[in-house]
Amino acid sequence: MAKGHRSHDKRLRNENKDTRPSAKVSYARVSVTKACFVLDAIRGKDVQTALAIVEYNPRYGSSVIEKLLKSAIANAENNNGMKKEDLYVAECYANKGPTMKRVHPRAQGRAYRIEKRTSHITIVLDEK
């Protein structure tokens, strides 16, 4: 195959692909800053400790992240054949999603805007 051919380019792209188990939730109804409080707490921890942290964290974002973390663990066990005891949270981050704009009526015919922010949250696991 000639260099620059589309199948050659695709093969090169797939060689550099990250094979670590991960999970992603898109359009989560939690703002990036609120999600990052929980993500900062679990970054770098092993999965048992991370699950304990999100389970007993009172923030709303922790319930979303707990479900996502369990999904990432299941992906690692089923797709990659890894053991749960050897896993840790290698990367976790939240990116900004689209903002839903709503209007709240105020006095004298005015209207205030309410911004309901969303985020895209990603968790990447790795073996110790």
Explain what you see.
There is one protein chain. The chain is an alpha+beta fold. Helix content is 39%, strand content 30%. The strands form two sheets. The protein has a three-stranded antiparallel β-sheet. It has a two-stranded antiparallel ribbon with strand order 3-4. Strand 3 and strand 4 form a beta hairpin. It has one domain: Ribosomal Protein L22, Chain A. The model has no long low-confidence stretch (mean pLDDT 93). It is built from four helices and five strands, in the order H-E-H-H-H-E-E-E-E. Residues 12-21 have a biased composition (Basic and acidic residues). Keywords: Ribonucleoprotein, Ribosomal protein, RNA-binding, rRNA-binding. Pfam families: Ribosomal_L22. Residues 1-11 have a biased composition (Basic residues). Residues 1-22 are annotated as: Disordered.
